[in-house]
Design goal:
The complex is a heterodimer of chains A (about 300) and B (about 270).
Chain A: H1 8-16, E1 34-43, E2 46-56, E3 61-65, H2 72-80, E4 87-92, E5 98-101, H3 115-119, H4 127-136, H5 152-164, E6 170-174, H6 182-199, E7 202-206, E8 219-223, E9 227-231, H7 233-238, H8 240-246, H9 248-263, H10 277-287
Parallel strand pairs in A: 3-7, 3-8, 5-6, 6-7
Antiparallel strand pairs in A: 1-2, 1-4, 8-9
Chain B: H1 5-30, H2 34-54, H3 58-76, H4 84-105, H5 113-118, H6 126-155, H7 157-162, H8 167-189, H9 194-206, H10 212-237, H11 241-268
Classes of the chains: A alpha/beta (about 300), B mainly alpha (about 270).
Chain lengths: ~300, ~270
């Protein structure tokens, strides 16, 4: 994942020309890209999700967390119109351009698909636009490769490049850090944040590891068939519903990670996940007015 | 001898069918729909029988029945209690058996059953050619129009739908095109071997293709070569046209395998 770990200052200029921002960073306008009210999906007699309210605004990052079988993927599929809702309403902004990275895709080995073909899967783009999207994820050297020769991590990044190549209004990621180690996970989150900053797009992501919610998340929606709680990461981490669902330790870790990431870019410091809840808050307050580049959380 | 009118008609018909069957067959292979195609082809005999009953062109009967079976299968998949392959087996052989029984009842009509099952080089009429080329041209235009949506849906139905492609329309069009190819190939190749016209050239093309479009074009070319070689063999040694064409296609497939293997071995060598 070394390419992903490059400092952001090196990534931005390279891709800036193709991935033109349409809206300014994260100062989101009140409009909503996609919104669901009272969303329910019922399959073979039982409800997979019920009474789900969720919305994504431009420039905002929404993380969907919850245990296995909580209906995270179902929620995303219903929001995107892949799955028909059984109850409630889903509204998508007219002409909404979506970039979607599903949980897994299997390309049949009989299909001779190159990276270039995959990048043009849903729309035609010029070679230079494709090259710049691949550059943004550090995969431009594989532009001529056949898809089946890519490693798991490479494929994951190409799928991300494919989703952003059209400068989507809404980027939807279903467990983007699947099978990626902790260091890669942080790098990937940083990359997603950079993409959001550059495109001004809304981001909706399912996080497989409920302990780790990226620092830049504006809203965490905690799902377990229904919305248990939602709000900014700190609010959710402190909410009784969250504690009831995941236990106190998990809640503490959620808060720690989000703060830790504000200050430290050392991917190797796995200890962040074991910080105590109070300790983390201490740091968070202490660094609140810093420039976000303090060497390590432990330095306070 | 090669200028016999019936042989030229058969050649023209075969090439027309192969040009469409090649690209469509690629999708059949990529989407793992070989048995699906087989079920549609078997249902063709029911189409023939029904067409004879109501006295319309068998081609139309085959097209309608194959299309109906395809749409029914698609609608049933995932909803019925049976697995997809059991469902395909039931429909394939059920419709074939009903067709055979119906034809057995028609004592007043002379039906060349062997011709329908294995193809008949003498059966192609000039009017069939107009249908094959007219329909074939329409089919290729339709395929060109739905190409991106169908390919995207083949790779990932979720991405295709999430990003706003008309996948339902593309899939329905694809099924109708398959029904069309099956109807067009009926006289020449015969019901039992039609699926081979879709699959074998595409599988042979796989070894050399670097992209989906290239594979489709190559499959069309290999299909045409199979038709020419097969019909020539059928004419010379007096064998049924369907098996002869498929044997030729099989030969090309084996050749492709060998070339691919040799190439792989050379690349592996230091």
């Amino acid at each position: 994942m070394s390419a992903l770990l490059r400092p952001s200052s090196r990534v931005e200029p390279a891709a800036a020309s193709a991935l033109t921002p349409r809206r300014g960073g994260s100062d989101a306008s009140p409009e909503r890209l996609v919104a669901a009210e009272g969303l329910g999906v019922r399959r073979s007699g039982h409800w997979l999700i019920r009474d789900v309210d969720i919305e994504v605004a431009p420039g905002r990052i929404v993380s969907l967390i919850g245990p296995n079988g909580a209906g995270k993927t179902t929620t995303i599929r219903a929001l995107l119109g892949i799955e028909a809702p059984s109850a409630g309403v889903v509204r998508r902004a007219p002409g909404l351009r979506v970039g979607y990275v599903p949980q897994r895709i299997a390309v049949d080995h009989t299909l001779p698909l190159g990276v270039r073909h995959l990048m043009r899967l849903t729309r035609h783009y010029s070679d230079s636009v494709i090259a710049e999207a691949l550059e943004a994820v550090g995969m431009s050297h594989r532009i001529d490769a056949a898809v089946r020769t890519l490693s798991g991590g490479e494929f994951q990044r190409v799928l991300l490049a494919r989703a952003i190549v059209g400068s989507p209004d809404l980027l939807v990621l279903d467990e983007p850090v699947q099978g990626v180690d902790f260091a890669g996970e942080i790098a990937l989150y940083r990359l997603i944040r950079e993409i959001r900053d550059r495109l001004g797009c809304g981001v909706l992501m399912v996080t497989h590891d409920l302990h780790v919610v990226m620092a830049e998340t504006d809203t965490v929606v905690c799902l377990n068939g229904h919305v248990c709680c939602s709000g900014p990461p700190r609010t959710v981490a402190g909410s009784p519903a969250f504690h009831a669902l995941f236990g106190d330790r998990a809640a503490g870790v959620l808060a720690v990670y989000s703060h830790h990431h504000d200050h430290s870019h050392d991917p190797a410091s796995d200890q962040a996940r074991d910080h105590a809840h109070d300790h983390a808050h201490h740091h968070a307050h202490h660094h609140a007015e810093g420039d976000g580049r303090d060497p390590a959380a432990g330095g306070a | 001898m090669i200028a016999e009118p019936f042989l030229l008609r058969a050649l023209a018909a075969g090439i027309g069918v192969a040009l469409v069957a090649g690209p469509l067959g690629c999708f059949v292979v990529w989407r793992r729909m070989a048995y699906f195609g087989n079920a549609m082809a078997h249902a063709a005999l029911l189409g023939v029988a029904l067409a004879l009953l109501v006295e319309i062109d068998p081609l139309i009967g085959v097209f309608v029945v194959a299309a109906a079976v395809a749409v029914a299968l698609y609608a049933l998949q995932g909803r019925a209690d049976l697995t997809a392959d059991a469902l395909l087996g039931i429909l394939a052989h059920g419709t074939l058996a009903v067709g055979l029984v119906l034809i057995a009842f028609m004592t007043d009509v002379r039906v060349d059953l062997m011709g329908y099952l294995f193809g008949d080089i003498l059966a192609v009429r000039t009017s069939d050619l107009a249908l094959i080329y007219g329909g074939g041209a329409v089919a290729l235009v339709v395929l060109w129009r739905i190409w991106r949506a169908l390919l995207a849906e083949t790779v990932s139905p979720d991405i295709a739908r999430a990003e706003g492609l008309a996948t339902d329309r593309a899939r329905l069009a694809f099924l109708l095109l398959m029904a069309g190819v099956i109807a067009a190939a009926l006289k020449l190749v015969g019901i039992l071997l039609i699926t081979a016209m879709l699959i074998v050239p595409a599988a042979a093309a796989r070894a050399f293709a670097t992209g989906p479009v290239g594979m489709a074009a190559l499959a069309a070319l290999i299909g045409c070569l199979s038709v020419v070689a097969g019909l020539w063999g059928s004419f010379v040694v007096d064998t049924p046209s369907g098996p002869s064409i498929v044997v030729a296609a099989l030969g090309l497939f084996c050749l492709a395998l060998v070339v691919d293997r040799l190439r792989g071995a050379r690349e592996a060598a230091p």
